[in-house]
Design brief:
Blueprint: H1 2-23, H2 30-39, H3 44-51, H4 55-62, E1 71-74, E2 90-93
Antiparallel strand pairs: 1-2
Length: 94
């Protein structure tokens, strides 16, 4: 349970830092970016990942699952439907 709470706090902190960086154009410059990251309360691993712009490392540390799975299923035809399968509407199931 304690690990889960720590993970949520870690995620919240990084989101707040990323939000701040996105809102302040001056943080786009390398020196300002490095300063804000180094001054943050983030742990050293997150800081290094941000400074190195290592997206894969950030995803692993924050347990981000960017995969989206979607399935397209052809709409079922009624007996009186004579629509060609290729032109029949599709249902999206996620």
């Amino acid at each position: 349970m304690k690990e889960h709470v720590m993970k949520e706090a870690k995620t919240s902190n990084i989101i707040q830092q990323l939000e701040r960086m996105g809102q302040d154009a001056s943080l786009q410059a390398t020196a300002e970016f490095e300063q804000i990251v180094n001054d943050s309360t983030l742990d050293n691993e997150l800081k290094q990942s941000l400074l190195n712009k290592d997206v894969i490392s950030l995803e692993k540390q924050l347990d981000v699952c960017p995969d989206i799975v979607c399935v397209l299923v052809a709409h079922e035809e009624d007996e009186d439907d004579s629509i060609d399968v290729e032109s029949s509407p599709l249902s999206i199931v996620a």
